[in-house]
TrEMBL record:
One of the Pfam families matching this protein, by short name: DoxX
The organism of origin for this protein: Haloferax elongans ATCC BAA-1513
Organism ancestry: Archaea, Methanobacteriati, Methanobacteriota, Stenosarchaea group, Halobacteria
Superkingdom of origin organism: Archaea
Regions that span the bilayer: 14-35, 55-73, 113-137
InterPro entries: DoxX
Name of protein: Terminal quinol oxidase subunit
């Protein structure tokens, strides 16, 4: 059961809602992009050595869409954040291994790696807060 949380003010409630929607919408869009560009992304995944690249792209797109929408709406936030965390823990070192690419690709891959690390941090915050009741959330939780 969720523990009710009260932020310091209604403004803080709105700020938390805005953070959820912004973070969740970007993550959900990333998932949608997996579906809109499956062939291109599967080719990249195959080049990076992912087994069953097309299935991996579609599955990870589903994880991102579910995770992003769940965070934005406040639906099953622990599972939503967990899906995002799992995706980022696996994909970040596999696809953005800046240390193992030619020098001309290192800066671009490091930027993508660091962006993923920042998103991982955000997802971890939402996971940590998943045991409290979120303001302006649908409120379906596991705890």
């Amino acid at each position: 059961m969720s523990v009710p949380v009260q932020f310091a003010s209604p403004t803080a409630d709105i700020a938390f809602l805005l953070a959820r929607v912004l973070f969740g919408a970007v993550i959900a869009f990333m998932g949608l992009n997996h579906f809109m560009n499956t062939d291109q992304m599967a080719g990249y995944a195959e080049m990076k050595g992912l087994p069953a690249p097309r299935l991996g792209v579609v599955f990870s797109g589903g994880m991102l869409a579910f995770g992003g929408l769940g965070i934005a709406a406040g639906v099953l936030p622990a599972l939503a954040a967990g899906a995002i965390i799992l995706f980022l823990l696996v994909s970040t070192p596999m696809f953005h291994n800046f240390w193992a690419v030619p020098e001309e690709q290192q800066e671009s891959e490091m930027t993508s790696f660091l962006k993923n690390v920042v998103m991982l941090g955000g997802a971890l915050v939402f996971l940590a807060l998943s045991t409290v009741s979120w303001p302006y959330a649908i409120g379906l939780t596991m705890f």
